[in-house]
């Protein structure tokens, strides 16, 4: 199943729009605002204990291999461990339940945008297509007094997250990490469509 997930990711990434005008090939602007730089997304996840659940999810889905290439150029909205814990508590799930679920892959893909964006390039009302086909994230104003950079809205009206000011614009190879304080859950139709498509690929 891992190989199917990795293949699905690769196909989605290749099919994504190029966004050539805004993509930061050398990540020059982001390098000016990030205090720490990593060679890849997996290196970031392995170095940051507060993102160990995110790293585990990448490993179990096989996405860790797909994003290991330093030339992969995406923006990842990475939930902290606390974000995952709050999500699991709200859903009355254990971590094992989530990691064993077919829903894990589409949830992760809903956090990856095939474009490299610093927070200074984002604007309120902007819609960002994710690697979960047909699904967008929307940039919104931060909650007053939250100290967040921006609020991120999923298409699921019950799912929002804040970009954490102390952990944004982190360079990871050609990609950027934007840490968030909640898991961005896609709509159930989007999840089910992905699972169905994956099952069709597996059965072929």
From TrEMBL:
<feature type="signal peptide">
    <location>
        <begin position="1"/>
        <end position="20"/>
    </location>
</feature>
<dbReference type="InterPro" id="IPR000782">
    <property type="entry name" value="FAS1_domain"/>
</dbReference>
<keyword id="KW-0732">Signal</keyword>
<dbReference type="InterPro" id="IPR036378">
    <property type="entry name" value="FAS1_dom_sf"/>
</dbReference>
<dbReference type="InterPro" id="IPR050904">
    <property type="entry name" value="Adhesion/Biosynth-related"/>
</dbReference>
<protein>
    <recommendedName>
        <fullName>FAS1 domain-containing protein</fullName>
    </recommendedName>
</protein>
<dbReference type="GO" id="GO:0005615">
    <property type="term" value="C:extracellular space"/>
</dbReference>
<dbReference type="Pfam" id="PF02469">
    <property type="entry name" value="Fasciclin"/>
</dbReference>
<feature type="domain" description="FAS1">
    <location>
        <begin position="38"/>
        <end position="184"/>
    </location>
</feature>
């Amino acid at each position: 199943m891992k190989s199917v997930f990795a293949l699905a990711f690769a196909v989605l990434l290749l099919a994504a729009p190029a966004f050539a005008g805004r993509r930061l090939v050398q990540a020059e602007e982001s390098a000016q605002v990030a205090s720490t730089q990593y060679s890849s997304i997996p290196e970031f996840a392995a170095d940051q204990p507060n993102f160990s659940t995110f790293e585990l999810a990448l490993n179990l889905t096989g996405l860790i291999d797909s994003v290991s290439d330093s030339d992969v150029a995406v923006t990842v909205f990475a939930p902290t461990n606390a974000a995952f814990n709050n999500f699991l508590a709200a859903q009355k799930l254990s971590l094992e339940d989530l990691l064993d679920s077919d829903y894990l892959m589409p949830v992760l893909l809903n956090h990856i945008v095939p474009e490299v964006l610093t927070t200074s390039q984002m604007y309120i009302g902007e819609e960002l297509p994710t690697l979960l086909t047909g699904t967008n994230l929307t940039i919104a104003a931060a909650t007053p007094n939250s100290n967040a950079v921006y609020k991120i809205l999923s298409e699921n009206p019950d799912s929002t997250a804040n970009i954490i000011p102390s952990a944004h614009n982190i360079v990871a190879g050609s990609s950027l990490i934007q840490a968030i304080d909640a898991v961005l859950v896609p709509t159930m139709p989007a999840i089910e469509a992905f699972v169905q498509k994956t099952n069709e690929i597996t059965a072929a």
